[in-house]
Amino acid sequence: MLNERGGYENDCLLIRRADNRYLMLAPTTQQTRIMDWMRRQITAEACVSVSDITSMYTVLCVVGPKSKEMLSLMCNTDLNFYGHMAKEINIAYASGVIVLSFTQVGEPGYTLLIPSEYTLHIYSQLMKIGHDYGIRNVGMMTMRALRVEKFIPFWAEELDSTVTPYEAGRGYKVKLNKEYFIGKFALMRQANQGISRRLVHFTLEDTFDPDEDTWPWGGEPIYRNNIYVGNTTSTAFGFTLNKMVCLGWVKHPDGRVMSPDYILGTSRFEIDIAGRRVAARASLQPPKMPVVKKDGFASYRPKSRGIVA
C-alpha cells in the first residue's frame, strides 16, 4: 500500500477470505500505525470496516525442504498448492488454522496463522513430530540472513514511506493498467521518466575474510569509482553463496536519472567497513541459488524484476 508519492506505507499480504472480506498480514511493529493509516483512507460514504484481530492469531513459519512432508503427518489436507495461496485446515486436531504456501525468506515452506488458543498445542506437536526431521527453532537473525542473501527487502530497513516499488526492484508488482490506486500517478511518472536511486544487492569479493575481518552491520558508505553514492541497509553472511552480502541504496551523485548500466556496467564498487574499503560485486537481481528439491523445484528461481530503464 502506497502514499500519493508512490512510497510504501504498508508492506502487507492480503488473503481473500470471501468476495468482500480480506485478512491482512502486516509488520507487527507497525500495528497501531497501519490501523490509523487504513482508517484515514476510508471515507464516510464507504461501506468498509477495518478490525484489528492481531491478538486472535499467532504466526508460525515452517521452513525447509521437509516442511510439506512433516506437516502432512499433522493434517488430512492436500498441501500441494501453489505459492501465495491459502487454505483453512485442521492441524493436530486444532481447527481454523490458515496455511499459506509462502515464506518471507524465499525458501520452501508454509506460514501458519493459528488461533491463539491452539498455538502452544500446535507448536508442541510440530516439535514432537519434527524431531525425526531435524526441526530446529530459529530466530530473526537466521531469517534476516536468508532474506538478505535472496535480495528480499524488509520494512523499516529497505522499505519506508519515501521508497517506491521501482526504486526497490519491485516494479514487476506494479500494474499501471489498473483503475486508480493511491500513488498511481507518481509511479506513472517514474515509469516514464526513470529513477535516480536503486536498491542494490552486493556480494563482497574474496578479499574479505569473514573469519578475520570486521563484518558490516548496515549504514556503511558505498563508493562507485571512488565517489560516494549511498549506504548499506541490511547485511548478513550468505551461507549458500558463502560470501558476505549487503543490501544498499545507490543514488546518482548529481541526482540524475540512473539507468541499470550505471550499476551493471564496468563500474567498480567498494563498501567502507570500519575504515577499510572492500570490493563488492553489484546486482539488481536476486542470485540464482541451488536449494534442496521440493515438489520438483531444484533451485531458487527468482521472478525477473521490472527494472526501470
Automatic annotation (TrEMBL):
<dbReference type="Pfam" id="PF08669">
    <property type="entry name" value="GCV_T_C"/>
</dbReference>
<dbReference type="InterPro" id="IPR027266">
    <property type="entry name" value="TrmE/GcvT-like"/>
</dbReference>
<dbReference type="Pfam" id="PF01571">
    <property type="entry name" value="GCV_T"/>
</dbReference>
<dbReference type="InterPro" id="IPR013977">
    <property type="entry name" value="GcvT_C"/>
</dbReference>
<dbReference type="InterPro" id="IPR029043">
    <property type="entry name" value="GcvT/YgfZ_C"/>
</dbReference>
<keyword id="KW-0670">Pyruvate</keyword>
<dbReference type="GO" id="GO:0005739">
    <property type="term" value="C:mitochondrion"/>
</dbReference>
<feature type="domain" description="GCVT N-terminal">
    <location>
        <begin position="1"/>
        <end position="178"/>
    </location>
</feature>
<dbReference type="InterPro" id="IPR006222">
    <property type="entry name" value="GCVT_N"/>
</dbReference>
<feature type="domain" description="Aminomethyltransferase C-terminal">
    <location>
        <begin position="197"/>
        <end position="286"/>
    </location>
</feature>
<dbReference type="InterPro" id="IPR028896">
    <property type="entry name" value="GcvT/YgfZ/DmdA"/>
</dbReference>
<protein>
    <submittedName>
        <fullName>Pyruvate dehydrogenase phosphatase regulatory subunit, mitochondrial</fullName>
    </submittedName>
</protein>
<comment type="similarity">
    <text>Belongs to the GcvT family.</text>
</comment>
